[in-house]
């Protein structure tokens, strides 16, 4: 029997979940508080699903669903390749953070997370802070990324940025024969939490840093702290640079932007950078641009919150594990070259293999 159902482009939501192998999609609403949220659990073979909550003013519910499905799937592979015993999940709250965020809303969201009984653990993502995690913590233990003063691991962004920096060096080693970034022209797109910490590391390394953001206040605050060159938002993709570091939102690598690109390496912190994983990874390959797979190289933040979630937070160990991203990036580059596949595919193969080895069912499909 045919039933009416919400469609994502040409597919129903359940068909899409089926194709992408998601386990659960949970819709949460509270009309009194104005909360509309979606929690997506992609895969729990390695352990309970874990991934941050993003607050974003999506143009439609469909856009929010597509985002959370993609982001949670990415978490499955990120957590796997980072060697963590957690599965992939993510949540989105629909709305403008500047207008709707507050204690009541975050605590109500925490109640929904709690209702999942530990199947999903949350943490920070875009537009979320340690304070928000503390509100959530009032309603559920299934949250990490609390502030250091509350015994948590603090903002994960500096560790994310450090992992990206390590991966950038591994990519530079491959392309230039040296991992020293002195004098390299590196364009950081997105001057938020991850982007600004990355800039700090790159300036220390004496790289030539170029920056871009949608908002002038972000640019101003970075330009006041560091010697950087500002690039207009619409000139980012054509800029002649050594490394492009996407640290804003996803899908900036697509059929329109790739033909414009003038860089040798892409290594940045944003999630879901490739609009189409297969097509655009191949286009980059064909163009001779080395791509550092996003879910591998931005895994420092989840490594940070994972140690907190496990109840044995130790900053030195977190940084040591984050530095493994350099070696894993090198392994991925080599595997891609030996097997004549893209770096994205090589990283996916490693992540999937670990899950398959762990799998209770022996034959998960992705
Ligand atoms: P953020 O909200 O602090 O910063 C994002 C910045 O990007 C903002 O300054 C915003 O104005 C800017 N921006 C948005 N669209 C832009 C565009 N088209 N051009 C230029 N600038 C643009 O977010 P964040 O925490 O720094 O995260 C950045 C990215 O990294 C996101 O994709 C996030 O999912 C990913 N990520 C973050 C972490 C973390 O630890 N925070 C971990 C893993 C992945």
What do you see in this structure?
The protein has 366 residues and is α/β, with parallel strands linked by helices. The chain folds into two domains: 114 residues, 3-Layer(aba) Sandwich (Rossmann fold); 197 residues, Rossmann fold. The chain is built from 13 helices and 14 strands. The strands form three sheets. Strands 3, 4, 5, 6, 7 and 8 form a six-stranded mixed beta sheet that branches. The protein has a six-stranded parallel beta sheet with strand order 11-10-9-12-13-14, sandwiched between helices. Helix 2 links the parallel strand 6 and strand 7. Helix 4 crosses helix 5. Nicotinamide-adenine-dinucleotide binds next to helix 6 and helix 7.
List the helices and strands and how they pair.
Elements: E1 7-8, E2 11-12, H1 13-20, E3 24-30, E4 35-43, E5 49-50, E6 53-56, H2 61-81, E7 87-94, H3 97-100, H4 103-115, E8 120-121, H5 130-137, H6 157-176, E9 185-189, H7 193-204, E10 208-212, H8 216-225, E11 229-230, E12 243-246, E13 265-266, H9 277-286, E14 290-291, H10 294-297, H11 300-309, H12 315-339, H13 343-358
This protein binds nicotinamide-adenine-dinucleotide.
Nicotinamide-adenine-dinucleotide (NAD) binds near residues 193, 212 and 247.
């Amino acid at each position: 029997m045919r039933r009416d159902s919400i469609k994502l482009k040409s597919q129903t939501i359940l068909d899409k979940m089926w194709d992408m192998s998601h386990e659960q999609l949970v819709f949460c609403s509270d009309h009194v508080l104005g909360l509309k949220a979606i929690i997506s659990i992609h895969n729990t073979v390695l352990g309970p699903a874990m991934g941050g909550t993003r607050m974003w003013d999506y143009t439609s519910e469909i856009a929010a669903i597509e985002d959370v499905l993609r982001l949670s799937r990415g978490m499955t592979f990120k957590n796997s390749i980072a060697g963590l015993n957690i599965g992939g999940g993510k949540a989105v709250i629909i709305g403008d953070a500047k207008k709707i965020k507050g204690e009541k809303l975050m605590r109500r969201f925490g109640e929904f997370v709690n209702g999942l009984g530990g199947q999903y653990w949350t943490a920070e993502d875009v537009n979320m802070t340690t304070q928000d995690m503390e509100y959530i913590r009032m309603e559920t233990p299934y949250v990490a990324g609390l502030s250091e003063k509350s015994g948590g691991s603090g903002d994960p962004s500096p560790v994310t940025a450090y992992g990206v920096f390590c991966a950038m060096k591994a990519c530079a080693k491959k392309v230039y024969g040296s991992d020293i970034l002195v004098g390299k022209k590196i364009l950081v797109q997105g001057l938020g939490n991850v982007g600004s910490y990355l800039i700090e590391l790159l300036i220390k390394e004496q790289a030539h840093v170029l920056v871009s953001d949608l908002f002038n206040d972000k640019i101003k605050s970075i330009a006041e702290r560091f010697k950087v060159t500002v690039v207009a938002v619409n000139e980012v993709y054509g800029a002649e640079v050594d490394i492009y570091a996407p640290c804003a939102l996803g899908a900036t690598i697509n059929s329109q932007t790739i033909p414009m690109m003038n860089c040798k390496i892409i290594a940045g912190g944003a999630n879901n950078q490739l609009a189409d994983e297969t097509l655009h990874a191949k286009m980059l390959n064909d163009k001779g641009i080395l791509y550092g797979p996003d879910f591998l190289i931005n895994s420092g933040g989840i490594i940070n919150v994972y140690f907190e979630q496990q109840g044995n937070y130790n900053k030195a160990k977190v940084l040591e594990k984050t530095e493994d991203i350099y070696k894993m990036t090198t392994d991925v580059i080599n595997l891609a070259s030996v097997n004549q596949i893209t770096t994205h595919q090589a990283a996916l193969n490693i992540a999937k293999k670990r899950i398959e080895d762990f799998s209770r069912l022996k034959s998960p499909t992705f």
